[in-house]
User: What shape does this take?
Amino acid sequence: MKLTKLAASALAVASIVLSAGIASAQTAGTNGTNANYIGAGVAAGATSGGQGNDEAQLGGNIQGRYAMPNAPVSLRGSVLYGGDAAAIMPIVTYDAPIARNTNVYFGGGYSFVTDEGQRTPLGNQNAPVVTLGIESEVSNNVIAYGDTKWGIDAYRNSDADAVSFQAGLGYRF
Assistant: This one.
């Protein structure tokens, strides 16, 4: 059942993102950003697993992006911390330009919790992760980003999913 929900959600979001990419490719002057960056900001967990020691957490994030040359794909890394542990995530995304120096991105990866059973902004156990976000180069070498991460079955002793919202500023390198 969860796999069916995940597949349906992924297909719906992917079609929206791909449609945005096709539409933006048809608009003259629309080019996103190919910036590689590392940044930091806030992370806010929005869910609870319904058990003890798994309530929503407010914390921080460290995120990075490496844009693959000549492809609309990026390798990303994210660390969400707060509570009693951290969630470390390698993620691959599809990036679609929507405006000058601005992309939306959609992708997936896996969340590794440093101390399973302990709180993070994205649940308390290792889990698959889906992300949807936006990034924009707001000035010379400064990137603003924001995204949502969905951890599938991310709580111990619960079949609940976790959702976390991130925002921050990055340095382009």
Remarks:
- The beta strands are 37-45, 58-67, 73-82, 85-99, 102-113, 127-139, 142-151, 162-172.
- The first helix runs from residue 2 to 25.
- Helices lie at 2-25.
- The radius of gyration is 16 Å.
